[in-house]
């Protein structure tokens, strides 16, 4: 499976792929229990760096889509 980082509209970054390690600024790896996993980008999660769904209640809005002429085949 290809590693993929997908941006959810008004939500987290969803990481797919078995060969991805999540490393903190000290070089230590997080234990990732399940895949795919979602990373918070709204700042409201109580379980950072993971998304806990709090973006919905926080009213997080981020709907910037990639240019359509760069879409994957
Ligand atoms: S993106 Fe989901 S809690 Fe922040």
**Helix count from the secondary structure assignment:** 1
- Ligand names: FE2/S2 (inorganic) cluster
SSE string: EEEH
Secondary structure tally: strands: 3
Query: Strand portion, in percent?
Result: 15-25%
Query: How many angstroms does the end-to-end distance come to?
Result: 16 Å
CATH class: Alpha Beta
Proportion of residues in helical segments: under 10%
| Category by helix and strand content | mainly beta
Summed up, the domain count is 1
Radius of gyration: 14 Å
* CATH architectural designation: 3-Layer(aba) Sandwich
Shape: flat
- Which stretches are low in confidence, meaning pLDDT under 50 for 5 or more residues running? none
Strand arrangement across the biggest beta sheet: 1-2-3
Give a verbal description of the structure.
With 73 residues, the chain is mainly β. The protein has one domain: Ribosomal Protein L9, domain 1 (3-Layer(aba) Sandwich). It contains 1 helix and 3 strands; from the N terminus they run βββα. It has one helix at residues 54-58; strands at 4-7, 13-16, 37-39. It has a 3-stranded antiparallel sheet with strand order 1-2-3, with no helix packed on it. A hairpin with a 5-residue loop joins strand 1 and strand 2 (13-16). Bound molecules: FE2/S2 (inorganic) cluster. FE2/S2 (inorganic) cluster is lined by residues 11-12, 40-42, 44-45, 51-55.
């Amino acid at each position: 499976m290809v590693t993929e980082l997908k941006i959810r509209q008004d939500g987290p970054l969803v990481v797919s792929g078995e060969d991805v390690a999540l490393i903190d600024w000290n070089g230590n790896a997080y234990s990732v229990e399940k895949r795919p996993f979602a990373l918070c980008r709204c700042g409201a999660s109580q379980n950072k760096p993971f998304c806990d769904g709090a973006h919905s209640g926080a009213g997080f809005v981020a709907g910037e889509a990639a240019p359509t002429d760069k879409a994957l085949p």
